[in-house]
């Protein structure tokens, strides 16, 4: 039941402790505390809490607001009281009353009978009637509370006491089921809120102290014990350490972090005591930004959801008018007109017309889709993107970091005649330790401990060419072919035909061989392309800033339809605009700041590995928390399932209501059928929407 009498201020309603789904856009980052995990009272489904939204789009269901300020908390009874207490008492009184009526007990008549059923009615109905009255001053007259009040009070006025009680009682039970369904749908957000640490050990001035994470400053060092959550983003200063990242990424496998690598708030330290240098304040952690994004998602409604709420806003007063005509018109046309009979039909008509099944179950279905996606490590910035994901026919992807690992690794070592790998690698690796270039780092990592003890002197870095230096007394060159040309070192012509990035080496003025360095595809990249094509995507494109020969090779390896390399960000935007102009419904998938313009241009922008980039979180419509491109296909499956469930509910509600409305107008349907058409259909629709939470994707 909705409790319009609760005296809640706007400030109270805009706190994370309430997790009000239509108010979450008003949450500030410092309000995203673990206290928000407190079990919310009542339901507050997007599209069903009908206070005006914070944006410029008016909420079509403002008619459901139950307080002067338009906000409400849907609490059930007094603090600590079970929401089922008074409905249970009402049900007991109703059943006993029906039994007394059936056996025609003498004392149970007249005033006694009216008072008996009146108490049963008021236990569940007074808050609904109060809600109807409170909504009138704001002009929000035509809502479910007015319909229920008119129908049930009207039933009492013609002596149909049991039916009047039953309608209000079952309506209340329906509200309780809605509460349970929405609370279940909120669990994914509550689970995210719970992963924020509530206290942190800070090392200052040679001593440790336990503080609230909000009090920690940039540059502080925090200590994380085994089993503790990391409270703030930072750099690991004492490691290595293994971290459970499942709460952030949905991945069960732990990640090992080395000294100097970044760790994020919400990760759980698994093994040893570690220290972390704080690089982000509490409200600026990646986790806080993600929580804000997830909670804001429910404020952006899908087209279907907006249509239904606007339709209900028009539909409800029309049905009230029809109910009035159902009383008045027969008086002019029917010879044996009986006011009581036609009033009863009109009351049945009013009960059936209540749009609860639509305005609750449909947004609940979309919210269930957002929750299912969150559990899969996919964050959507609005339920509208579930619709867009389902409609796309073209997926355009960046290469490096999206389909490939974004990490260079040595693929091949090709020594020249007279050299072998055991001679070549220590010389080249030792020289490359003096460079910070990603390719140099890949070579050093590949060579490993073989560089230990090797002396490197007189190193000269030649911009755009490579390195020259003395390694163990030998003059070594390591870089591209331009470096060898510069120092007049001849090399085989076939070296120029190598597609991958290449490190060419010379020792004491003689060509010594080369190493190829490449960025390998991710383990699920080929699977991603295969699943997207099987899922109805008709065009898959790869756009990359890497050289075209490498881009084409990766595209061929993964089975991608079309690929273009050597592109600047503006070139990528040009290609995407061409596809959009041609009528394509397009998703662009990227992983970094350079892709932000194209992500914003696409119908739906998807950011890969969003935990690592603030820019992608800000720009993208969908953020995949892991680096797995196969999650794109998972998001599509969730979008299709959500769409299917939502439209099942729409057809169920419209179909049953149309049939029973016709029967009610004809005098065939009674209040009992009306209860099924309203509350029964609403419960069936809610249970159907509930299925999304249980689906495996």
Automatic annotation (TrEMBL):
One of its GO terms (molecular function) is ATP binding. Coiled coil: none annotated. It holds the Pfam family E1-E2_ATPase. SUPFAM superfamilies: Calcium ATPase, transduction domain A, Calcium ATPase, transmembrane domain M, HAD-like. Residues 50-60 have a biased composition (Low complexity). Residues 195-295 form the P-type ATPase A domain. It catalyses: Zn(2+)(in) + ATP + H2O = Zn(2+)(out) + ADP + phosphate + H(+). The chain crosses the membrane at residues 84-103, 115-134, 314-334, 346-367, 645-665, 671-690. GO terms for cellular component: plasma membrane. Its main location: membrane. Keywords: ATP-binding, Cell membrane, Membrane, Metal-binding, Nucleotide-binding, Translocase, Transmembrane, Transmembrane helix. Residues 34-74 are annotated as: Disordered. Its EC number is 7.2.2.12. It comes from the Bacteria. The keyword Transmembrane helix applies. It is found in: Cell membrane; Membrane. PANTHER family: CADMIUM/ZINC-TRANSPORTING ATPASE HMA2-RELATED (PTHR48085), CADMIUM_ZINC-TRANSPORTING ATPASE HMA4-RELATED (PTHR48085:SF5). Belongs to the cation transport ATPase (P-type) (TC 3.A.3) family. Type IB subfamily. NCBIfam families: ATPase-IB2_Cd (TIGR01512), ATPase-IB_hvy (TIGR01525), ATPase_P-type (TIGR01494). This is P-type Zn(2+) transporter. It comes from Hymenobacter gelipurpurascens.
């Amino acid at each position: 039941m909705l409790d319009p009498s609760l005296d809640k201020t706007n400030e109270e309603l805009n706190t994370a402790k309430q997790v009000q789904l239509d108010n979450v856009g008003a949450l500030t980052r410092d309000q995203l505390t673990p206290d928000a995990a407190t079990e919310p009272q009542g339901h507050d489904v997007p599209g069903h809490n009908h206070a005006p939204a914070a944006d410029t789009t008016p909420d079509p269901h403002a008619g459901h607001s139950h307080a002067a300020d338009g906000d409400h908390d849907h609490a059930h009874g007094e603090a600590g009281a079970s929401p089922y207490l008074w409905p249970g008492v009402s049900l007991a009184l109703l059943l006993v009353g029906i039994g007394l009526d059936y056996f025609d007990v003498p004392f149970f008549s007249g005033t006694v009978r009216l008072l008996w059923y009146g108490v049963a009615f008021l236990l569940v109905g007074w808050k609904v009637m109060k809600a109807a009255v409170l909504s009138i001053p704001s002009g929000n007259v035509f809502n479910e509370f007015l319909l229920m009040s008119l129908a049930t009070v009207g039933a009492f006025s013609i002596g149909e006491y049991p039916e009047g009680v039953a309608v209000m009682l079952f309506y209340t039970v329906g509200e309780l089921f809605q509460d349970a369904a929405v609370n279940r749908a909120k669990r994914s957000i509550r689970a995210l809120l719970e992963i924020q640490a509530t206290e942190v050990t800070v090392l200052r001035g040679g001593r440790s102290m336990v503080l609230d994470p909000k009090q920690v400053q940039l540059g502080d060092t925090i200590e994380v014990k085994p089993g503790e959550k990391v409270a703030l983003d930072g750099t690991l200063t004492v490691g290595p350490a293994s971290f459970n990242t499942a709460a952030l990424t949905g991945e069960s496998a732990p990640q090992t972090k080395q000294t100097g690598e970044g760790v994020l708030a919400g990760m759980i330290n698994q093994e040893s005591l570690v220290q972390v240098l704080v690089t982000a304040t509490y409200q600026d952690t990646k986790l806080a930004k993600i929580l804000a994004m997830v909670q804001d998602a429910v404020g952006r409604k899908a087209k279907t959801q907006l249509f239904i709420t606007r339709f209900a806003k028009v539909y409800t007063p029309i049905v009230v008018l029809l109910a009035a005509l159902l009383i008045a018109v027969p008086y002019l046309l029917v010879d044996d007109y009986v006011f009581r009979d036609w009033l009863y039909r009109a009351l049945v008509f009013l009960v059936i017309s209540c749009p609860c099944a639509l305005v609750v179950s449909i947004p609940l279905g979309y919210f269930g889709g957002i929750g299912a996606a969150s559990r899969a490590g996919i964050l959507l910035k609005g339920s509208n993107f579930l619709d867009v994901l389902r409609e796309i026919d073209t997926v355009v992807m960046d290469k490096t970091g999206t389909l490939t690992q974004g990490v260079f690794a040595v693929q091949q070592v090709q020594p020249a005649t007279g050299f072998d790998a055991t001679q070549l690698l220590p010389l080249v690796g030792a020289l490359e330790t003096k460079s910070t270039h990603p390719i140099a780092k890949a070579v050093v990592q590949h060579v490993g401990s073989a560089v230990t003890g090797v002396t490197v002197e007189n190193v000269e870095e030649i911009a755009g060419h490579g390195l020259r230096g003395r390694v163990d007394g030998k003059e070594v060159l390591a870089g591209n072919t331009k470096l060898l040309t510069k120092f007049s070192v001849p090399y085989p012509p076939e070296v120029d035909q190598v597609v991958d990035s290449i490190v060419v080496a010379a020792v004491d003025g003689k060509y010594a061989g080369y190493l190829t360095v490449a960025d390998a595809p991710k383990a699920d990249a080929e699977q991603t392309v295969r699943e997207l094509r099987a899922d109805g995507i008709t065009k898959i494109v790869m756009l990359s800033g890497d050289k075209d020969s490498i881009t084409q090779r990766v595209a061929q390896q993964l089975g991608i339809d079309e690929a273009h390399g050597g592109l600047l960000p503006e070139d990528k935007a040009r290609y995407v605009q061409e596809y959009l102009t041609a009528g394509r419904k397009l998703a662009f998938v990227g992983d970094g700041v350079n892709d932000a313009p194209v992500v914003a241009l696409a119908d739906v922008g998807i950011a890969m590995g969003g935990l690592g980039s603030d820019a992608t979180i800000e720009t993208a419509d969908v953020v995949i928390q892991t680096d797995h491109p196969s999650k794109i296909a998972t998001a599509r499956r969730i979008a299709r399932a959500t769409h299917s469930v939502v439209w099942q509910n729409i057809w169920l509600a419209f179909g049953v209501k149309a049939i029973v409305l016709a029967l009610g107008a004809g005098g065939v349907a009674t209040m009992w059928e009306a209860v099924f058409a309203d509350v029964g259909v609403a419960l069936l629709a809610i249970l159907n929407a509930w299925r999304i939470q249980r689906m495996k994707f």
